């Protein structure tokens, strides 16, 4: 695709647009569904109606609807994008622009477990880079690729605000803290064997499509066992402050 912009002297400058090197799919995947069958459409419309009803303006429901169609196909397909476009009254280009902006929306088929290795600064220096390199070799796949049995998609991810438990691996967005190459290998082996290790904290693990339905705002059927709450590493600073009798300084303006 070629686009033109205006240069400093008013001349036309032509630039060539193409997919970023790390994002070759651009919603064009061989075999991706182009439309849904009447049965699938009817089922999705029931869920979409429930989601849209939560918002004063239906276009505000676009993000959860993209998770809904991702739950159907495991990634954003032409069928899913078109469905969302019809539901919220936006053009296909507008829906694609939103879907391609956020990294939680996938552009290619996703395995049952999306294994994300944080390779941002803190996790990287604490071992995240080594874990990612080791898992690529162990699984025999590269970034954003899926094992032949369809169980694991490997991806390097950005900071997930769990730096106090670095290095962190996430499976379908559940936390596995303080990982090592060895523990990460055991983790992916457990996923592939059908007996997944439990996350370090948070809710129990479920498969990628179930996760996508939960992210769409549909009922979360997982047992609530009170897994939430901050861990010891997160509270360490507070504990030290209390032990030393430290207090926050008064707020500006003299009020404490
Ligand atoms: S750098 Fe990895 S969770 Fe923040």
Short recap of the structure:
The protein is of the alpha+beta class. The chain has helices spanning 38-52, 62-73, 78-88, 92-101, 121-139, 181-193, 208-215, 232-243, and strands at 2-6, 12-16, 113-118, 145-146, 152-157, 169-171, 174-176. The protein has a 5-stranded mixed beta sheet with strand order 4-5-3-6-7.
Structure report:
With 256 residues, this protein is an alpha+beta fold. It has two domains: 2-101, no CATH class; 113-206, Glutaredoxin, CATH 3.40.30.10. Helix content is 39%, strand content 12%. The protein contains eight helices and seven strands, in the order E-E-H-H-H-H-E-H-E-E-E-E-H-H-H. The protein has helices at 38-52, 62-73, 78-88, 92-101, 121-139, 181-193, 208-215, 232-243; strands at residues 2-6, 12-16, 113-118, 145-146, 152-157, 169-171, 174-176. Strands 4-5-3-6-7 form a five-stranded mixed β-sheet. Strand 4 and strand 5 (152-157) form a beta hairpin. Helix 2 (62-73) packs antiparallel against helix 3 (78-88), helix 2 (62-73) runs antiparallel to helix 7 (208-215) and helix 3 packs across helix 4 (92-101). It is globular. The mean pLDDT is 90. Bound molecules: FE2/S2 (inorganic) cluster. FE2/S2 (inorganic) cluster binds next to helix 5. Residues 217-256 are annotated as: Disordered. Its cofactor is [2Fe-2S] cluster. Keywords: 2Fe-2S, Iron, Iron-sulfur, Metal-binding, NAD, Quinone, Translocase, Ubiquinone. Pfam families: 2Fe-2S_thioredx. GO terms for molecular function: 2 iron, 2 sulfur cluster binding; metal ion binding; NADH dehydrogenase activity; quinone binding.
């Amino acid at each position: 695709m070629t686009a033109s912009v205006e240069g400093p002297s008013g001349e036309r400058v032509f630039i060539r647009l193409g997919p970023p090197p790390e994002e070759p799919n651009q919603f064009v995947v061989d075999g991706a569904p182009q439309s849904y069958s009447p049965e699938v459409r009817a089922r999705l419309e029931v869920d979409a109606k429930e989601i849209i009803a939560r918002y004063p303006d239906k276009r505000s429901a676009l993000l959860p609807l993209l998770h809904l169609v991702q739950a159907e196909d495991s990634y954003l397909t032409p069928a899913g994008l078109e469905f969302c476009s019809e539901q919220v009254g936006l053009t296909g280009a507008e829906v694609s622009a939103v879907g391609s902006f956020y990294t939680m929306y996938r552009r290619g088929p996703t395995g049952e477990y999306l294994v994300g290795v944080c390779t941002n600064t803190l996790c990287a220096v604490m071992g995240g880079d080594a874990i990612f390199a080791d898992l690529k070799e162990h699984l025999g796949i590269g970034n954003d690729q899926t094992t032949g049995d369809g169980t694991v998609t490997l991806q390097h991810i950005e900071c997930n605000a769990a730096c106090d438990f670095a290095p962190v691996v996430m499976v379908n967005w559940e936390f596995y803290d303080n990982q090592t190459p060895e523990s990460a290998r055991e983790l992916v082996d457990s996923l592939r064997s059908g007996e997944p290790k439990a996350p370090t904290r948070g809710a129990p693990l479920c498969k990628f499509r179930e996760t996508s339905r939960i992210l769409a705002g549909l009922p979360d059927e997982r047992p609530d066992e009170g897994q939430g709450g901050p861990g010891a590493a997160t509270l360490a600073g507070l504990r030290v402050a209390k032990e030393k009798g430290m207090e926050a300084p008064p707020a500006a303006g003299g009020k404490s």
